Structures are given as structure tokens and as C-alpha cells.
């Protein structure tokens, strides 16, 4: 396994919805943020590492 945690992001102009799956425990964590990439990064840093992250492709996610 390459990652301990997988994170998926749904990025919109005013918000970012995030869901994470921790492989070792089966835990699922979900959060919604205002459009604040730094807050998303800080949240992701609290999850077991290494973490892989992906997002749906679209124009609002490119700044992440």
C-alpha cells in the first residue's frame, strides 16, 4: 500500500468538501471548508501519513 490515508476533494468556488479513508482503521473522516486551501492542508496533516490526495478536475481546483 502506497498511502496510509486516501483523501478526496470536491472543490467549488466557495467551498471544499473533503473525505478521507484511513486504511489501517477503516475510519472515514469528512469535513467541509470555505475556499481555504491552507485549512484543508492543515486538516490533512492531522491524518495518518503518508496521505494521497485527489480531486475532481475542474477550474476551481487548479489553485490547490
TrEMBL record:
It comes from the Bacteria. It comes from Parafannyhessea umbonata. This is IS110 family transposase.
Amino acid at each position: 500500500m502506497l498511502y496510509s490515508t486516501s483523501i478526496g476533494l470536491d472543490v467549488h468556488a466557495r467551498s471544499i468538501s473533503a473525505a478521507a479513508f484511513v486504511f489501517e482503521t477503516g475510519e472515514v473522516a469528512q469535513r467541509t471548508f470555505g475556499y481555504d486551501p491552507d485549512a484543508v492542508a492543515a486538516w490533512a496533516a492531522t491524518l495518518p501519513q503518508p496521505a494521497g490526495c485527489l480531486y475532481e478536475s475542474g477550474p476551481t481546483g487548479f489553485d490547490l
